[in-house]
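sorry for the late reply, my laptop died twice this morning and i had to redo everyting from scratch. anyway the thing you sent over, i finally got around to it. pasting the sequence first so we're on the same page, its 166 residues, then the predicted structure underneath. double check i copied it right bc i was rushing
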Amino acid sequence: MPPPATRFADSPPDGAPPSVRAAPSSGGAAVRVLGGAAWRTLGRHQIGSLVATAVDFGTMIAFVELLGISAVRATALGAALGGIANFSLGRTWIFRHQSGRLGGQAARYALVSAAGAGWNALGEHVVHDRAHIQYIVARALVSIVVSLLWNYPMQREFVFREGRAR
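ok and here's the structure:
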């Protein structure tokens, strides 16, 4: 006997964004999966993250190598400029929510970014310090996990949510 059909099989669950669809699992329960629009947004988010990282690291290296600024100060300046680049891309291209209040979005972005920095530091501690993985490899692995499991969902659902059906 086949499992009973769920009401989520053909439509998004109540309150879910239009890009979220439910698919039946082997047990018949509904499992939420990303629709096509959400995958495209995730792809733009990852490209935006790469651009912001290039701004961050490029600024840091240029400030150290060309201007003789200390690596610590250059890291802070690079991270700040990378964050501004990522926020700007998020607002205009990734999530396309320019109509939202800039100040509210910026404040929420700052909170999410600060928490993301904490997740990255904790992950670096676990993967590098405890698991003894080379620090650059650990940083890359942790940053991908944090980007996919923290930054993207929080930017999509908290920072740039304005104007979307709740």
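Residues 1-34 form one domain.
thats about all i looked at so far, will dig more tmrw
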